Amino acid sequence: MPIDPQAELLLLKSAEDRECLNYPLPSTSFGYHASQAVEKLMKALISARGEVYPFTHELEKLQSQLKNAGEILPALTCEFDDLQPYAVLIRYDAAKELTSAERGRFIETVDVLRKWIEARIAVLST
User: Fold this and answer.
1) Model confidence at 43: pLDDT above 80
2) 3-state class percentages of the chain: helix first, strand second, coil last, to nearest 5
3) CATH number at residue 10
4) Where in the sequence is the domain holding 36, given as residue range(s)?
5) The HEPN domain covers which part of the protein (predicted)?
6) Domains in the chain: how many in total?
């Protein structure tokens, strides 16, 4: 069974957001792209499962939908609560400066989640 085209597109768009994390972006932009990468990865898995994902930036809501479908995400180095403010609110408000360690945790979270979700999608596509 081929990969769901929407899931494939979301994986590609998530990779574009992840690529942005390789550059010295301001904290708000860095957090935004990290949040977007995670959001698109979860939506890719939801789509690959043949389900409809909500048009939301709420990471916990997406995680809950996956959990209800039996998908338990791996342990991550940062909580979705750490990423969530960058999804919408901080784009219009001031943000604290992210430390190098926080940036590293955001990157690791995206990378771990990507590896796990790509593996799940591969299983679902066979």
Assistant:
1) yes
2) 65, 0, 35
3) 1.20.120.330
4) 5-125
5) 32-118
6) 1
